Amino acid sequence: MNDEVGDPGSFWSKFGWLLAAVWVVFLIFPILSITESTQPMPAKIAGYGLVAAFAAVYLWGFFTYSSELGVSASGHGRAWVPFGALLAITAASLPILGADAISLGPFLISFAAYLLSVRSMWITNAGVLAAALSVAIPAGLGDYVFLLGLLVVLVVVNAVNTALIRRGIAADDLRLDYALLAEQERMARDVHDVLGHSLTAIGLKAELAERLLDSDVDAARAELRQIRALNAEALDSIRATLDGQRSTTLAQELASVRAALDDARIKTVLVGNAQDLEPAHSTVLSWILREAATNVLRHAHATTCWIRIAPGRLGIEDDGDSLAGSREGHGMRGMRERARLAGARLEIGDSDHGGTRVAVSWE
To answer: Residue 346: which residues within 8 A CB-CB, separation 6 or more?
Structure first.
């Protein structure tokens, strides 16, 4: 996972600070308290300055750390700096505002809810509510009913909002993890299929070249040149696979498979034409054909392989060993996954010819 908190392109990181800007209007209450007080003018000017400083730090904190909105963690060290400044300004305003300093409480609650940890949020909620009640109860509650109601509403709303934001972030992280896992599985399937087929073909040609060395040196050299070409092709395919750019057509794969089967002295019987299939199905079918043919070359001990093509269907059968008693390996699981992702049905079972049958169809 990325260690950066939040998505720089998300709504929160771009516009989250506007949540703070909207609530600044409620600083009118401490301003009115200063205006209506009997404090000397220098004290009032200092009070106005403290309120202005409180608003500036509050907005700066949200603007600077908006990417941390709603993120649940043990605590955001950087966001604690402006929060500490807000607490210090609140304490400094007590000689001027007196009990009315509690009107700064909603801002402390909101800041803690959106930029600090869940634990810090609830500690701040409890502290501000306790302070508000300690002021309101001795005064008979009457003058503080609105403020107490606002604090309670903010506690509930902030708790719900931040929970939803955290849930959304967690869902985004989960989707990213799933996408990364799916890409890793895709790469594993592609590399397995590329290497499996290519190494099998290279092995067969190496055996053929070895047999030809004593009887036909020129033919052996030709086989060695083809081995070199196959090796280069496999390396190119792996590079393209890792870049997510590899694609192949069914016609190309048919030619490659037939050549490999011929080298293994397995007769190929082709029924149908690759052009009968929709182009959208070509890539997935080429992968499945490659893996099925590789299994025939490696395990089947077959003499004949039948490849049948019809609109929306592809079948591969052989007359070699059946699947009875064998375990399903990575290659077969890869074929099933490719078919599933393409919306196709894959059947793997015994062939009427005694070997194995692989059938892909869209129904």
So the answer is: 288, 335, 336, 339, 340, 358, 359, 360
